[in-house]
Each structure stands twice: as C-alpha cells, then as structure tokens.
Design brief:
Strand order of the largest sheet: 1-2-4-3-5-6-7-8
Distance between the termini: 84 Å
Number of domains: 1
Number of strands: 8
CATH architecture: 3-Layer(aba) Sandwich
Order of helices and strands: HEEEHHEHEHEHHHHHHHEHEHH
Largest sheet: 8 strands, mixed
Number of helices: 15
Oligomer: single chain
Strand content: 5-15%
CATH topology: Rossmann fold
Length: about 325
C-alpha cells in the first residue's frame, strides 16, 4: 500500500512538473509573438475593454473586420493600405484576438462583437462607416447591420457565413471549446506547435490561391496561438451556428447598400449555401462571384474587393475619390 501511495505521489509530482514546463514554454512562445508583432495602432478603452484599432488614410470612414483565427494584420497586409487611398480605414482586432480583450469567458456572440466594434468606430469619430467583414467577420458585419442599423452607411461581405449549414463542427474546435479538454489541449498547442504546421494551415486557408509573399511573416500567426486567443476563437466558432440561425431570418431589415463578394472555389464557406441566398434576403444586395477564387478573396482578388467597396460607398452617396 505504501508503495502504491509513493508511486501515486511520484506520478503527481512528475505530471505537475510537466504541466509547469508546458505553461512555461507556452508563455515563452506568447512573449516572442507579442515582441515580434506588437500593436500597429491605438489601444482604446471601449465599454470597459481594451480594443486595438489601426487607422489610416483619409476620406469616408471604412471599418474592416477580420475573420476567425486572425487579427487586423490580415487586413493591414495589403488591403487596408490600398483602400486608404480613398477612405479613412479603421481595422479592428475582434474580441480575444490580436490586442483586443475578450468580452467574456463564454464566447462573445456576433451581436456582442458588433456592438463593441460599432462603439469603437463611434469613439474614433466614425458615426456611419462603410463596414466590410471577411468570413466570420462578415457574420459580425451582418449582425452590425441588423442590430445597429443607424450606425453604418453601407455593407460589404467577403466569403461570409450567413445562413444555416449542415456540416458538423470540426474535431479541432470541439476539443478546444470543450470545458475540460480545451484548457488541457490549448497550452500544449501553444507550447509545441511547429512553425511548419502553421505555414501548412495558412496555405490550406488560401487554397486554391497562393499565399502572398510576406503574408505569413506579416500576419503574426503566433498571436492567434496564444492561449487566451485559441480559447476565445474556439468558443466563438463553436457557438456560431445557433447565432446564424437566429440572425438569418432578420436580413430583410438591412436597408443599407450591400455588396456581397464570394469566390466560386471557396470550400470553407460555400457560395451556394451562404452568399447566393444572402443576395436574395437583403433588398437590393449585389452579388459578385469571383471565378476560381478561394476563401481569401481580399488577397487573391484585391482589385475586385476595392471596386466592391468603392461601389458600396457610391451607392451610399459617399465620395471616395476619383
């Protein structure tokens, strides 16, 4: 019996030491990510939360909302500088990602996030911006248009999940959003995931389009691999479907000019499931199909995105340069 107790104690000590080492490695990786990719813009206090926003350019106000597993750097790589020739561009880190605080520990809803982003835009003097959202950020942009209709002038969605779907949540998100498995798995990912795997995952998101030169270094994937960001992102993604089910019956309330852009080769968010129905649910919405383009149209077909944004601004009566 004494031997069994000693064995259990020894095992507990070893497990405790291992877990401490994991947390140490995870913290070291987080520190390196934040050192190599610091905030690009301003840290604001909005509704009791720190919010990171990058502002550039002059002209009509335009808010850019990034997708899942990302941050505002996805927008500032190329699209924001290009649009800053015509607009005052505000790229914002969504809650829990980049340098914006988590709103809560249960997974901020798209409505929660839309409210925070709208308040951030107002704080920056953008009372009725054009709002562009990519992927999950497109769902947030749709929630913004539904729940805060008087606070935007036009809407642009890129590869946005907008209608209910049948496919199951991936095992990855099931584990990371689980109340017990998530807190156990996440530090291991942060501590040990190799850079080669990160590059592979980024390439998969872009498929069939190539990853632009310099994108991986610019976007700072290590910021998303921080423990709190992995958890926040997983909870948001795991709880998206019921929120879309509740939201999609209200799109007829959107009255602002709406441009919908989607690649025909997008296998992450299907064109026929999402953007094609959405174009019929919003009165006057215009759908642009990008032939052969995947899930990252703002990188693979930047010219088309810039034109869609400028078209939305013109339809809203805004002057965005020649």
């Amino acid at each position: 019996m004494k031997l069994a107790i000693k064995a259990l104690l020894a095992t507990a000590v070893l497990l405790s030491a291992f877990w401490g080492w994991v947390q140490y490695r995870a913290q070291a990786h987080e520190s390196r990510a934040e050192s190599s990719h610091p905030p690009q813009g301003r840290i604001l206090q909005i509704q009791g939360h720190r919010v990171h926003a990058v502002v550039s350019g002059e002209g009509p106000d335009l808010v850019l909302v990034h997708g899942a597993s990302g941050n505002a750097r996805d927008m500032t790589f190329s699209l924001a500088p290009r649009l800053a020739r015509h607009f005052r561009v505000i790229a914002i880190d969504r809650p829990g990602l980049g340098y914006t605080d988590r709103i809560n520990r249960s997974g901020a809803t798209i409505a929660d996030q839309a409210g925070l982003l709208a308040a951030t835009a107002r704080e920056l003097g953008a009372d009725r911006p054009v709002v562009l959202g990519h992927s999950y950020g497109g769902a947030v942009a749709l929630a913004w248009a539904v729940h805060h209709p008087g606070t935007l002038s036009a809407l642009v969605t890129l590869a946005a999940p907008s209608n209910p779907w049948e496919s199951d949540l991936s095992t990855y998100y099931k584990i990371l959003s689980h109340p017990v498995l998530g807190p156990l798995a996440i530090p291991l990912i942060t501590a040990f995931i190799p850079d080669a795997r990160v590059k592979t995952e980024i390439a998969a998101i872009f498929t069939p389009d190539p990853v632009p030169d310099g994108y991986t270094d610019h976007v700072g994937a290590g910021l998303t691999l921080r423990r709190h960001s992995l958890r926040a992102n997983a909870l948001q993604r795991a709880r998206l479907l019921p929120q879309i089910k509740a939201l999609h019956t209200r799109y007829d309330r959107i009255r602002v000019p709406t441009e919908i852009v989607h690649g025909t080769a997008d296998t992450t968010v299907g064109l026929t499931i999402h953007s094609e129905p959405l174009s019929k649910q919003i009165n006057g919405a215009r759908l642009t199909r990008l032939e052969g383009v995947g899930h990252m149209p703002h990188h693979a077909a930047e010219d088309a995105i810039v034109e869609a944004v400028r078209r939305a601004a013109r339809r809203a009566g805004l002057h965005a340069g020649p």
